[in-house]
Model the fold of this input.
Amino acid sequence: MELCRVAIAGFGAVGRSTAGLLLDRRARYRDVYGVEVRLVAVCASRAGLVDPAGLEPERFDDLEPGLSGPDVIEASGADVLIEAGPSDHRTGRPGLAYLERALSGGRDAIVISKGALARDGARLRALARRSAATIKVSGAAGAALPTVDLLDHNLLGSEVLGVEGVLNATTNYLLDAMMARGVGFEAALREAQAGGFAESDPRDDVEGWDTARKLVILAGFGLGAELSISDLEVRGIQSVTEEQIAGWRSDGLVPKLVGRLWRDEAGAFRGGVGVDAYPLTDPLARLPGKTKAIRVTTDGMGEIVAIGCGAEPLATASAALKDFEHILAARAGRLRPA
Ligand SMILES: NC(=O)c1ccc[n+]([C@@H]2O[C@H](COP(=O)([O-])OP(=O)(O)OC[C@H]3O[C@@H](n4cnc5c(N)ncnc54)[C@H](OP(=O)(O)O)[C@@H]3O)[C@@H](O)[C@H]2O)c1
Done:
């Protein structure tokens, strides 16, 4: 039976959930793809585990100091890297270093952090092409909500005319709270922080940067459109006022923070992030709490809407392992499990 060795870099909530799920699904990988899957390495920032014979969950709480970094992952002999570390959005590190090493060595990569992809996605795709490796990014582009896969698989052959995405759960939660109680941004944020629903430093979410990064990733990986963050006009929800909230309520509209892609006159994709208000009849208006959604407008298939709200970190782990099964299926020469 063919062997597939997996390494996971970044061993926090998502990395651990992914590791557990991967091991739970080993029988499925054997039955469906004829592949024995072995987890050969995991690492956090300063410690990790490596075992060519395969790791089991009982060892996950005894990471060995020093076993971390791209050298350790490379030496483990992994065929597939799952990258689940944090993101420095200015440098793309630490993910970028792991990804460059894996892809340049011809190893497939499944990426969950956004920093490296939003900053250097085009270069990473080129690196993968040169070494005939695969790079999959569902976890970084909406996770359980299908975005790149929707564009890549389900709409194959149709021309995409535009995309609208409610891609950030925190801002959706905050706008919901503002509409429900008629309060402005500052009051809603204080409530959300007190309840643990927003970060103590919420700027990345509320100013629209998280949505912008996801938009750039799905444009690049789903549509081959080379946009960077600096190409987008990005407006968040921080300046939404009580007066605007009152106006939307009396007009029967629901505000959402939306990332948009559209085609300019020359047919090239342009993008931006900002608040749009939708009538109640629109599916994008009906997204409670931390629900995310994407609407794609095509030439031949009309409008397609996907809506999702999985519980984290399992939903993101599941999205990463969906990517893994696509890799196994491609290796087995099949488009989907038999
Ligand atoms: N949580 C979610 O629901 C969710 C959803 C979608 C996407 N994501 C993305 O998934 C990634 C992980 O999120 P998380 O919630 O699992 O974060 P987390 O719990 O903070 O875990 C991050 C992990 O990365 C490790 N790490 C830090 N620097 C590293 C390095 N240089 N090399 C290897 N590992 C390193 C940390 O190690 P130490 O413990 O030693 O610091 C920790 O194990 C983030 O990029 C996040 O944006 C998360």
